[in-house]
Amino acid sequence: MGPLPITSLTIRQFLRGKSLVVVAGIFGFTVLFALIRYLPGSDTSLRNIREVMGEGIFLGIFTATLLPLGTLILATAAFGDEIEDRTLQYLTLKPISRTRIVLEKFIAVLLITIPIAWIMLLLSYAVQCWGHFGDTDDMIVPMLAGTLIGVIGFGSLFMLISMLIQRALLVGIFYVFVWETTLSRFLSGIRSISIRHYSQSLFVRMLDDRRISISGPSAEMTVWITIAGLLIACMALSVWRLRSMNLE
Amino acid sequence: MPMLKRKPKTAPDEISSGPETAQVAPHTPGLSGNESATILFEGVSKWYGDVVAVSDVSFGIGTGVTGLLGPNGAGKSTSLKIMAGLLAASAGNVTIAGEPARGRPYAYRNLGLVAETELIYPFLTGREFVQLNATLQKVPNRNEAVQRAIDLVEMESAADRRVGGYSKGMRQRIKVAGALVHDPGIILMDEPLNGTDPVQRAQLIRLIRELGAMGKTVVVSSHVLVEVERFAQDILVIVNGKLAAAGDFRAIRDKIDSHDHSIRLRVSDPRLFASALIQMPSVSSVHIDKQNRVIAETSDVRTFYRAVPRAAQQHNVRLFEIQAADESLQSVFSYLVER
């Protein structure tokens, strides 16, 4: 079982289920969008390739919809499946702190979600920027960093939601499409309290390309502090919830 | 947790039963006079909205095997979950080894629960499941402890197969191994014999008795009266969320036996056998139901059970089935509550 037995157990839970395939499929949509470049009549100039990868795929599709959706599935499954299957008591009836249970579960979410997201993103980058790697490789690290921030933010929030309500997946989907995808895109007040904004802010700040930007990006430090605060708050609430939860 | 000495068994006239008997026996129901409780329920209630699952229940449980008896839906599982700290009581206090049961994870070093849930991580092998329990319990000499627990439930031959392919009885036994791997002093088992075949059942019953004899506090819930008789000397009877009776099994059984029982028999010649049964002194009435089964009322069920095969032989009637008509035992339990 190793030094993190609950993380190992949760990863095995993820690997055996269909959710992993679904998540890979969701993140894999970016590759399909990248393939558009190869349709007849497409603009294959370097400028357009960079803009499609940065604005179209990463900012427009990936961070706004696909990243929260994919993270939602695994983050809600981490505790949700155990609550539904009534197996959580095998973990809670042990002399280990509730904080450790929550942290190990969250680590499992990160260890599975981040590699899948990164692989699919790099795959779409390879497809989109094929032949122009030398002129576009400055986008890679900002994209990976933005993804990391997104997974941490969405993962901690959705894991907490799954411990508070039964239909976490439905609520999460509603949140993703209504809040993150729609409202935060058009209402500036909401933008600063959406995780998408911080994920995108880190990307555009690190990339520092005037042609690829968002409205009013937050500073890098603000991004890290905000996401760290969100993470701590969600973890603390999850631990509290686990302590007070009645396990039928 | 300090190990308590085995308690002297309660004499039949010391039976405590519900609120009425509490006046007769001023001590905590379930405990003999000077015995201290490993598990203590004090005025415990649990309700879900308007539904009361457990209602103002008080009892104590010492070392040895205690049967938690009651019909399905009586509140046994809820009581066990409250004991284990999985559920918060709506009212009252629950202590295990003198400390609140809930919100103290370190208390689980000395507690093992065989839960009612059938589900175990199906992708783990039986051995991995027991190893997981041992790891989370921080058991020293883990491999030895895991092997010992697997041997205890006689699961060695299937230990390296995935739990998802186990029969219900095998899942029950591997759950028991998982609950015992850290050698706890307090063991709670929720219907552990469910789904087991007769051989598995005999093994588990022997194990439960051995655990009790070792001085551990073992609480086993069941809705089958004759099952509890095989492993528990002390029982707590819970009906409709209330404590109906507590004390020595034999004394309570005698009380139950003196109540009229309805026994259903399926025989080759119902009319002939009905007329034979009504001749028995222990039988107060006999009738034949719509499915052509003989229903006999008796106030001496043990004599009745002994006499039936002889009567069938004498009258050359084939006996296919004999069982309590009140399978849930609800009427017997109700008798305990209402008397």
Major sheet characteristics of chain B: 6 strands, mixed
Number of helical segments of chain A?
11
> CATH homologous superfamily of the largest domain in chain B?
P-loop containing nucleotide triphosphate hydrolases
Strand order of the largest sheet of chain B: 6-7-8-3-9-10
The total count of strands of chain A amounts to: 0
Give the radius of gyration of chain B: 22 Å
Tell me the Rg of chain A in angstroms. Answer: 19 Å
Judging from the principal axes of the Cα atoms, what is the shape of chain A?
globular
* Number of self-contained structural domains of chain B: 2
Structural classification of chain A:
mainly alpha
Q: What is the CATH architecture annotation of the largest domain in chain B?
A: 3-Layer(aba) Sandwich
Order of helices and strands of chain A: HHHHHHHHHHH
The helix content of chain A is over 70%
Present the secondary structure layout.
The complex is a heterodimer of chains A (248) and B (339).
Chain A: H1 5-16, H2 19-35, H3 46-85, H4 89-92, H5 98-128, H6 133-136, H7 140-164, H8 168-186, H9 188-191, H10 195-207, H11 220-244
Helix pairs in contact in A: 1-5, 2-3, 2-5, 3-5, 3-7, 3-8, 5-7, 5-11, 7-8, 7-10, 7-11, 10-11
Chain B: H1 18-24, E1 39-48, E2 51-61, E3 64-69, H2 76-84, E4 91-96, E5 99-100, E6 111-114, H3 126-136, H4 142-152, H5 168-180, E7 186-190, H6 198-213, E8 217-222, H7 225-229, E9 234-239, E10 242-248, H8 249-257, E11 261-267, H9 270-277, E12 283-288, E13 294-298, H10 301-314, E14 319-324, H11 330-338
Parallel strand pairs in B: 3-8, 3-9, 6-7, 7-8
Antiparallel strand pairs in B: 1-2, 1-4, 4-5, 9-10, 11-13, 11-14, 12-13
Helix pairs in contact in B: 3-4, 3-5, 4-5
